[in-house]
Design a protein that fits this description.
Elements (H helix, E strand, L loop, with lengths): L1 H27 L25 E6 L3 H8 L2 E7 H5 L5 E3 L6 E5 L10 H15 L1 E8 L4 E8 L2 E8 L3 E5 L4 H6 L20 H16 L8 H6 L1 E6 L5
Antiparallel strand pairs: 1-4, 1-5, 2-9, 3-4, 3-9, 5-6, 6-7, 7-8
């Protein structure tokens, strides 16, 4: 009998210790060291909201500095759901892992005027430092990505039926992802019917490039989206 009681006590003690360890680990994983919110499962619970077709990633943790640099009109608090649904002209998201995302129909479109996009990124990066731009249209197969730092374009590529913008050396991330960047006046090879379309592959890989350079909006923890709010408004510039 004493041996049996000792065995039962040992089993109960082991189970108790196991429960304590699980609770401690769950608490440690519940907070992001940068935001104080859930984010260690950042890649485990991707957001289920609509992936934006165009966005900025700005190296900053201060949304109000971004708001000031953009000089938003009619600024107001806005939820992530509204922002990702592109219901606002511009939506400044709260900081995630040292980056602030900006999205909305108020961002310049290289396919409309690539020079406007160039000037916009130059001016914004002079105020905020590193600014990245991403655009992907799966229907038209238009795509673009650019990285500006302190008023200088480090790397940029834009395609909209033809190469509109090709500046700076290819980054290692582009090479690793196999992104195809055509030179000016270069015509894509139609290829074999059974082969994947190069332009469509480029579009699909834009979020992966964003993840390598900064952050992919489609991989943000859904719990973080529900808890935090950003800033919405209208752009002051004219195209």
């Amino acid at each position: 009998m004493p041996v049996l009681l000792l065995l039962l006590f040992s089993i109960a003690l082991s189970v108790g210790i196991g429960i304590v360890i699980l609770v401690l680990r769950s608490r440690q994983g519940a907070e992001n060291p940068e935001t104080g919110l859930v984010s260690t499962s950042f890649q485990e619970q991707p957001c289920t909201f609509r992936w934006p077709g165009c966005w900025l990633a700005i190296r900053s943790t201060n949304p109000f500095a971004v708001q000031s640099a953009l000089r938003l009109h009619n600024a107001k608090s806005c939820s992530w759901i509204e922002g990702l649904a592109c219901e606002e002209k511009l939506f400044i998201a709260p900081a995630v892992k040292g980056w602030i995302l900006v999205m909305g129909s108020g961002l310049p479109d290289p396919s409309d005027d690539v020079d406007v996009c160039f000037r916009f990124l130059i001016q914004l990066s002079r105020k905020l430092g590193q600014v990245q731009f991403f655009s992907a249209n799966r229907v038209l197969r238009y795509h673009a990505w650019a990285k500006a730092d302190r008023g200088r374009i480090v790397r940029a590529y834009a395609w909209a039926g033809k190469t509109l913008w090709h500046q700076g050396p290819r980054t290692p991330a582009e090479t690793e992802l196999g992104l195809k960047c055509f030179d000016y006046l270069e015509v894509p090879d139609s290829g074999v019917f059974s082969q994947p379309d190069v332009l469509s592959l480029n579009v699909d890989k834009v979020p992966f490039l964003a993840a390598r350079w900064s952050i992919d909006p489609g991989r943000i923890d859904a719990r973080f989206l529900q808890m935090e709010r950003g800033i919405a408004g209208e752009p002051h510039w004219r195209y």
